[in-house]
Amino acid sequence: xxxxxxxxxxxxxxxxxxxxxxxxxxxxxxxxxxxxxxxxxxxxxxxxxxxxxxxxxxxxxxxxxxxxxxxxxxxxxxxxxxxxxxxxxxxxxxxxxxxxxxxxxxxxxxxxxxxxxxxxxxxxxxxxxxx
Length: 131
Hints:
Blueprint: H1 6-21, H2 25-29, E1 32-42, E2 45-51, H3 53-63, E3 67-80, E4 83-94, E5 107-118, E6 124-130
Parallel strand pairs: 1-6
Antiparallel strand pairs: 1-2, 3-4, 4-5, 5-6
């Protein structure tokens, strides 16, 4: 069954964000294609690029201990072709000191967007986080 319905895409994205907020890596990856491409873009530059579900799982598990809390809040949805873009407000509290000078207990608050690209079967084939 093809997930061409915008409501179905939105439900998949909501489930992904809920799993992210709950630090549920298995749930985050549930609707992702095996050959998922993940990119993080900050200030117009790609700061992280991952290919494949196994690599994404490893990265997601590696960053779990960095935060005592983390939460993405979804703003508006926008659909174009095979892509759905969401506005995201991100809030996190660090559990450790980071090399960039941020300290344990510091709060991160960012606004950005996430772009999800879907296959005809409804799997997420690409996820780009932009801040």
